[in-house]
């Protein structure tokens, strides 16, 4: 197992190393994940997606009756995460490209640590029926000397959505370091999203611009579950219980749709390379 095949993929610039490990034979450790994601000495990525059968992974076994495949997602620093909205779309693209799954009439089920989600494929765009986001508490985030009011949102993983006011541009934020947050509210850390209102766009009820600092990965070009959290807060603030929110991130546009209590995240998912990595050379 010193040399294994990998695939590189991304969803709106949020990039992943994908490891096909159907039977869970690979000894994946935090150190190995961090080495794979190292952009200078490894392959480079925001995280690792291990493709493993649900029945073969202890965190996925409980979902085996509902989904054959489990997305074992790890952040770039080697920590484990519950959910990744961009990752699950890239994971789905990998399953399809490698003939490992065929979508049914209602889509393709994928097990995650946050539960089973369902992916629907429309050519280059993959939409995922996500867990309903729970907007549940007020809090704050700090960036340098600045403090921003925000709202906590549970999307299966934790988020803190902070709107910028007084015409402060997103580009002015220094996100080289993790924003400060309330550890009592977020004991396992939190993904912090910063937003501004965008100009109206065709096909959307609301338009939001966003940057994100992801726990375990630093600032990324995109965060799918973060876009879902941002969409939920935008709809709530607009007094809407349903609608379409276009979320523009540095890596591209994601679309959040709330319809009859169903929440969908849609965007592209691209596989860009395959190769072989020498794991012994990494650690």
Tell me what you see in this structure.
By secondary structure, this protein is mainly beta. It has two domains: 140 residues, Diaminopimelate Epimerase, Chain A, domain 1 (Roll); 127 residues, Roll (Diaminopimelate Epimerase, Chain A, domain 1). It has three helices and 17 strands. Strands 5, 6, 7, 8, 9, 10, 11, 12, 13, 14, 15 and 16 form a twelve-stranded mixed beta sheet that branches. A five-stranded mixed beta sheet has the order 4-3-2-1-17, with helices on both faces. A hairpin with a 2-residue loop joins strand 14 and strand 15. The chain starts with a strand and ends in a 5-residue tail after the last strand. The mean pLDDT is 96. It catalyses: (2S,6S)-2,6-diaminopimelate = meso-2,6-diaminopimelate. This is Diaminopimelate epimerase. It is found in: Cytoplasm. Belongs to the diaminopimelate epimerase family. It comes from Actinoplanes friuliensis DSM 7358.
Give the helices and strands, then pairings:
Layout: E1 3-11, E2 14-20, H1 30-37, E3 47-53, E4 69-75, H2 85-97, E5 108-112, E6 115-122, E7 125-130, E8 134-143, E9 146-154, E10 158-163, E11 191-197, E12 206-214, E13 218-220, H3 224-237, E14 243-249, E15 252-259, E16 262-268, E17 270-278
Parallel strand pairs: 2-3, 10-11, 12-14
Antiparallel strand pairs: 1-2, 1-17, 3-4, 5-6, 6-7, 7-16, 8-9, 9-10, 11-12, 12-13, 14-15, 15-16
